[in-house]
Design a protein that fits this description.
Blueprint (H helix, E strand, L loop, with lengths): L1 E2 L17 E4 L10 E3 L7 E4 L1 E4 L24 E4 L11 E4 L2 H6 L7 E9 L7 E9 L6 E7 L7 E4 H5 L6 E10 L4 E2 L2 E9 L17
Parallel strand pairs: 1-10
Antiparallel strand pairs: 2-14, 3-5, 4-7, 5-6, 6-14, 7-12, 8-11, 8-14, 9-10, 9-12, 12-13
Length: about 220
């Protein structure tokens, strides 16, 4: 586990192994009283146990800390996650919504996770840990990365998956995110914004070039 203090905040944005990416900023979506479900699907993806979150909404003025107005980078919207994986519950997840429709659109039914901004809400207790888990298709090994936040209020932290985890997070069918604290692994709310993902065209190889038929 990496403590947040050991990771530089200012890193140049780069995704050397993944091209053709898009950033999901969620800012064209509308909320009701500051919260709303995400469209299903949204940009070929299905978001489970995430809510659309507008921290500057007047409806949330007395419900969230002023220190959490920075969740949206930039405003107005971010997404809010909660729930740790435990018996009877699954972590907030991002999955391919419909493989058939993706193939019809000329895309492979997988995605790459490139980067995102994340922070635990309010002032987390000592040992609050944000965890990310990826499930590649085709029987690839599960990918895990986590970072421990010190106690206190935080700025959003930009996670660059390849640079921070030293692995390329591609050909994914599912990604889970959660935040927990304490010896019992209690749940802690967190927000995510500027989710950078990549999709490959049918026949496109890992180098971004189209593979020859039968190669």
């Amino acid at each position: 586990m990496l403590p947040l203090a050991s990771i530089p905040y200012a890193l140049p944005s780069q995704s050397p192994s993944i091209s053709n990416t898009t950033i999901l900023a969620f800012d064209t979506l509308l909320t009701t009283h500051g919260l709303a479900p995400l469209p299903s699907p949204y940009q070929h993806l299905l978001f489970t146990s995430f809510s659309l979150f507008a921290p500057h909404s007047r409806s949330l003025r007395h419900s969230i800390s002023p220190h959490d107005l920075n969740c949206a980078t930039p405003p107005p919207n971010a997404v809010l996650g909660s729930r740790i994986p435990s018996e009877g519950f699954s972590a907030p997840s991002i999955v391919i919504a419909n493989a058939t429709s993706m193939r019809a659109a000329g895309l492979r039914p997988y995605f790459s996770l490139v980067s995102f901004s994340i922070k635990p809400l309010d002032a987390p207790d000592v040992g609050t840990t944000v965890c990310v888990r990826g499930y590649p298709g085709g029987g690839g090994g599960v990918l895990d990365w986590e970072v421990e936040f010190p106690a206190g209020y935080h700025l959003p932290f930009k996670v660059e998956m390849e640079r921070h985890s030293r692995e390329v997070w591609e050909l994914l069918e599912r990604v889970e995110m959660w935040a927990a604290y304490g010896q019992g692994g209690l749940d802690w709310e967190f927000c995510v914004d500027d989710l950078e993902v990549g999709f490959k065209a049918v026949g496109e190889g890992s180098d971004g070039l189209l593979e020859q038929e039968g190669a």
